[in-house]
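Subject: sequence -> structure tokens, single chain

Hey, anyone have a minute? Need the predicted structure for the following. Not urgent.
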Amino acid sequence: MKLHGRVALVTGAAKRLGRHVALRLAAEGADVAVHYGKSAVEAQQLVAEMEKLARRSHAFSAELTSVREIETLVSNVAAYFGRLDVLVNTAANFLETQFGATTEATWDASLDTNLRAPFFLSQAAAPHLRTSGHGVIVNFADIGGLLGWTDFLPHSISKAGIIMMTRGMAKALAPDVRVNAIAPGTISMPGDPPEWQEDYIRRAPLHRTGRPDEIADAVMYLISAEFLTGHTLVLDGGRTL
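Reply:
Had a minute. Here:
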């Protein structure tokens, strides 16, 4: 088990890709702190699933637009588990807004959740990650940060910021902590509009969407690749080509 003895904090772990990543880390031997915002029921269900894998797990609620709550979250995780080795910043929103219709509230909601929160989470976690001997941060960008979607412009700007933040933090935290990012394309998730998948299949050279397990595989690679830092792994079936 590659992550035996390590503790990981996964933000936005109760649903969607965060859930798949958290389960994979537990399957690889990690004890997992499950962060959630409003999805308390789903978070507790996830904790129960990981406990069936004989892993320690606990759910922690925090509003990630508040730096104070971020600091409390990280402090509580470190106190509960006694250490913190891995931070995976998956929590994000995906707000559609055309350029001319973008409001201050939409801008703030996109940037605060998608960029500001991962920065301050990483800042709060850094002292614990430095002392672990295996400190790793994995940030979640997406290909909107590379392509610049006009109907999701604040979102795209926030994800482009994640890519540059990853590069800057990799230098700031080296050599004790490695920092990398993943930029997924469209991943097939239950409940997503079918037209998203149809458009992506048409545009991507591999003519398919991604699977959640492929994202979890990529996260595991970034955690285990000890000579890799400051990199953004684009997992998009060739869409950005």
